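Task 17 of the worksheet. Students: predict the tertiary structure of the chain below and write it out as structure tokens. Keep your answer in the requested format; marks are given for formatting as well as content.
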Amino acid sequence: MAIKLLVDSTSDISKEEAEKLNISMIPLIITFGQEDFYDGVDILPNQFFEKLIESTILPKTSQINPFRFEEEFEKLTKNGDELIVITISSKLSGTYESAIRAKEKFKDNVFVIDSLNACIGERLLCQLALILINENKKSAKEIVDELNIMKTKIRVLALLDTLEYLRKGGRISSLVAFAGEMLSIKPVVAIIEGKVKLVGKARGSKNGKNLLNKLVNESGGIDFSLPYGTVYSGLDNSLLKKYVKDSSSLYQEHTNDIPSYQIGSTIGTHVGPGAIGVAFFEK
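Model answer:
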């Protein structure tokens, strides 16, 4: 009897990457006007950001409904295998609740974890889950118990390039957004207790990067024995490359390998292009 892993597309793990890692991915639906796309399947990050930049309205994201989860659960447990399911934070989407409702028909061989995260934070929890499964030392329940502890140690910090998409999404007022753009204010956000929260503001990109690093250090620093990485939004990763180069003091004594990933549709809708970030398990 095997232990399998199912993740949703807000982890920004693509269909191809999931197949390579031998995990299953279930996509959310992204709607642009009258067009629906399966996130990470019908629309990839570059295509999404091209549409986002050209569009005058924000796309909408639809949570995964219980029926779609039931179909996946049935398929993945039909041979008696156990299934660990990791979803986007319940504070950001109803997807977790849908998975819980679907689980009712599958008794004790399906375990659902609220990641309290999204994007790269959810990805890191999935990577840790895969490590624990492949070690083949613990039961599914033991792995789930450990993941529920470890998810509280994940830190995601990001520097946004623009306030425009927060304004479009109604998270800040037009006046605040206009004033911020005029003063070149760069907000730093974090995922805290499952929600995206503003944790700092800086004048200009250089000060923003310094603030980002300050917050990394204040959180306790990066545990390099566990999954970690950097992230960018938009069509160009040059801002992230420069940030990694300028922030070598965070990494140079620990590793030469700094994984980088592209933000997908779910979080990309709200942060827009030009964001950079770092995610890790705190020490």
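Marker's comment: Residues 174-180 have pLDDT under 50 and may be disordered. The chain has two domains: 3-152, 154-281.
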